[in-house]
Amino acid sequence: MARLKARVGVVALVAVLLSVTTVQAVIYPFDVFTTNGNYNDSPAIDVYMNVSNGAGQVDFTFYNVSSIQSSLAQIYFDNGSLLGISHVENGPGTVFNEVYPGPGNLPSGETIGFYADKEFSIGAESPPPENGVNPPPPDEWVKITFDLLENGSLENVIGELNTGVLRVGIHIIDLPDGSSESAVNIPEPGTLVLLGLGALALLRRTRA
């Protein structure tokens, strides 16, 4: 919850530009809902996704900028109107695949009514702590590109994320005490709308 409040100021700064600028991408932070170890409520865990236009598709790019040892190992999608995964692009140091040794649903997801569409889930190949998205350096990431249903758009997807019709869950492993935690994306007002590279730079300065 503290992480959510810290981002509200950035939302206010960029919101004044919304009436004159087309949305290009939206940043969603994640909130840990499990209590498996000593880091479940730690602000040192900092993982987010960038949802952006992909030329008739939608890109979900995941980053881990945590200040502690951690690895984003699995990604799950619950409901929504996405058609299916077009492809997965691995960034530096990451090896994700749609076929991976891992749980079929977000661990403890059933406690919050989260039931993943198995066809929309991906995970890091073994060993996941090495192949998952880890904190920098280097700047690691993984991108999932989804095809859309007929007449679908980035705005449709963002609307579903903001209302909870579509939820994205992640499993974070290899924390310093050996624990792992599950998290889901924070909908509005935690949404940070990016209006180009200038706003992205503002976001990164605010997160530092």
SSE inventory with pairings:
Layout: H1 2-15, E1 25-32, E2 47-53, E3 57-64, E4 71-78, E5 82-90, E6 96-97, E7 122-124, H2 128-131, E8 141-148, H3 154-163, E9 167-173, E10 181-185, E11 192-194, H4 197-207
Antiparallel strand pairs: 1-2, 1-10, 1-11, 2-3, 3-8, 4-7, 4-9, 5-8, 6-7, 9-10
Description:
19% of the residues lie in helices and 33% in strands. It has a single domain (2-15, 27-189), classed as Immunoglobulin-like, CATH 2.60.40. It is built from 4 helices and 11 strands. It has helices spanning 2-15, 128-131, 154-163, 197-207, and strands at residues 25-32, 47-53, 57-64, 71-78, 82-90, 96-97, 122-124, 141-148, 167-173, 181-185, 192-194. It is globular, with a radius of gyration of 16 Å. It is α+β, with helices and mostly antiparallel strands and 208 residues long. β2 (47-53) and β3 form a beta hairpin. Strands 1, 2, 3, 4, 5, 6, 7, 8, 9, 10 and 11 form an 11-stranded antiparallel sheet that branches.
pLDDT < 50 runs, ≥5 residues: 4-21, 195-208
Rg from alpha-carbon coordinates: 16 Å
CATH class: Mainly Beta
By DSSP, the count of extended strands is 11
How much strand?
25-35%
Total helix count? 4
Instruction: Profile the largest sheet.
Output: 11 strands, antiparallel
Order of helices and strands: HEEEEEEEHEHEEEH
If you consult CATH, what is the topology? Answer: Immunoglobulin-like
How does the overall form come out from the CA principal axes? globular
Count of distinct structural domains: 1
Helix content: 10-25%
CATH architecture assignment: Sandwich
Oligomer kind: single chain
Tell me, rounded to a whole number, the average pLDDT.
Answer: 85
N-to-C CA distance: 18 Å
Based on secondary structure, the structural category is: alpha+beta
